[in-house]
């Protein structure tokens, strides 16, 4: 079962439908036991970093997410869900994140329009199982103004936006973050979700 975390900041319907199209057993939940028994966990999210962390705290999911991470459950954060995987965010006010990945989330310093909205090409930085069905240069869909600042060894792929390299896919061990929206990225996104399905089934 794939647990899609319901913490009042996600576009849950489109994410749920995207995974169901892969034939996955999906459950939208905020039950800690579901997270601890899940084969994989999805953290969706649209909105602001401090709101997301406050909501996770209010529904009591920070501890079970941490336990699931420590037991090795594959976990994917999407957009804001990726950002809160990091140690600290600076949207609205400095806010501590989950700390599953090293780095911070800051307002993007780019010579281009914010928010960064639209289709951009993926540039590979390291190999990762999630990219097994994707060719470098294929397009995925972004909507965000804040971006991760992270170590090179966690940066699997990025997108060039203006003069900036925007972290697009980050990962360490069983924790993965997509700044783009795979559920809105057409055929490329479908192949990424297929790869995630294979990661949790192996």
TrEMBL record:
State the pathway, as annotated in the record.
Answer: Amino-acid biosynthesis; L-histidine biosynthesis; L-histidine from 5-phospho-alpha-D-ribose 1-diphosphate: step 5/9
Report domain Glutamine amidotransferase positions.
4-196
Q: Which reaction does it catalyse?
A: 5-[(5-phospho-1-deoxy-D-ribulos-1-ylimino)methylamino]-1-(5-phospho-beta-D-ribosyl)imidazole-4-carboxamide + L-glutamine = D-erythro-1-(imidazol-4-yl)glycerol 3-phosphate + 5-amino-1-(5-phospho-beta-D-ribosyl)imidazole-4-carboxamide + L-glutamate + H(+); L-glutamine + H2O = L-glutamate + NH4(+)
Active site per database record = 79, 181, 183
Query: What Pfam families does this protein map onto?
Result: GATase
A single Gene Ontology CC term: cytoplasm
**In the Enzyme Commission scheme, what number(s) does this protein have?**
4.3.2.10, 3.5.1.2
Q: Some GO term, biological process aspect, for this entry: which one?
A: L-histidine biosynthetic process
Q: InterPro entries under this entry?
A: Class_I_gatase-like, GATASE, Imidazole-glycPsynth_HisH
Enumerate the CDD domains for this protein.
Answer: GATase1_IGP_Synthase
SUPFAM superfamilies (alphabetical): Class I glutamine amidotransferase-like
Task: Outline the subunit composition.
Answer: Heterodimer of HisH and HisF.
Role according to the record: IGPS catalyzes the conversion of PRFAR and glutamine to IGP, AICAR and glutamate. The HisH subunit catalyzes the hydrolysis of glutamine to glutamate and ammonia as part of the synthesis of IGP and AICAR. The resulting ammonia molecule is channeled to the active site of HisF.
Q: What is this protein called?
A: Imidazole glycerol phosphate synthase subunit HisH
Q: Which organism is this entry from?
A: Intestinibaculum porci
From the UniProt record, report the name of the gene that encodes this protein: hisH
